[in-house]
Amino acid sequence: MTGAVRGGALLVVGDVITDVVARHRRPLAPGTDTAASIRRVPGGAGANVACWAARWGDAEVRLLGRVGSDAAAWHERELAACGVRPLLVVDGETPTGTVICLVDEGAAAERTFLTDSGASLRFDPGDWSDALLDGVARLHLSGYLLFTAPSRAFVAVALKAARARGVPVSLDPASAGFLVDLGIDRFRALVEGVDVLLPSRDEACLLTGSSDAADAAARLSRLVPLVVAKQGAQGALLARSGEVCARVPAVPATPRDTTGAGDAFTGAFLAALLAGAGPEQAAEEGCRAGAQAVESIGGRPPARA
């Protein structure tokens, strides 16, 4: 075992998506028009995590993603502008994934997603090379990779390679809705070998059948060594060996758009770990990033000057 590279890079593997964000003040009116402010912005859980990690830390951040030829150049430029080294596989048959984000401009700025994952779900083992881990200290996988058979096979290959090199792996379950379709037992089998699991409160509860976030995080930590349950305005819970070991409060914020807040937390959390922080301190950084994310539109931090 060669071991992870001390002070090395973060490799994120996940979805690169075009987000169409529609912000509306009034409830949606079926069968007619609802006034909205609409913007096209780069997104995708994996890409967002990479961009926030690059903003929050000094380590090199690389992103392996799969996009269609229709928007590959645009996404590459947007990632580079955030300080991320893009490693994009261009799919000549399927367009880049698109998500319609419906954002209610009420006090909670809650959002609803309509998702066409497009090329991002067409990863397969042929897209992996062990050389991707050269110089890498941590590997992060977007849970969206678990939702098709070819990309699940890709995850298995990547996990095996990371274990062989002693590179720790983190994973974000990504979507409570898609987890239902995947099946809880299958998910639990697929994440064997993952070192850090970063579910939302809803995902943690779904994966355990518990209605209590702390109990859910504790149960999941019997499956994965470290569980960091993201709870939005309630902060985060850390659990190890079947017990909650830390509760990290949220940073106060006035939400405008909660899209990507969990991705911001994850990116900053991973950047802090790479910088040498312990998990609790890293979660504090994650809460700071999440607070920044909800006060701006879209799932990405501002581009670097």
Automatic annotation (TrEMBL):
Gene3D superfamilies named among the record's database cross-references: 3.40.1190.20
Q: What domain of life does the native source organism fall in?
A: Bacteria
Q: Name one GO molecular function term.
A: kinase activity
One Pfam family, short name please? PfkB
The Carbohydrate kinase PfkB domain is annotated at: 10-302
Instruction: Note whether GTP-binding occurs among the keywords.
Output: no
* CDD domains referenced in this protein's UniProt entry, alphabetically: KdgK
Per UniProt, the keywords (alphabetical) are:
Kinase, Transferase
Name this protein carries in UniProt: Sugar/nucleoside kinase (Ribokinase family)
Species of provenance: Streptomyces griseoloalbus
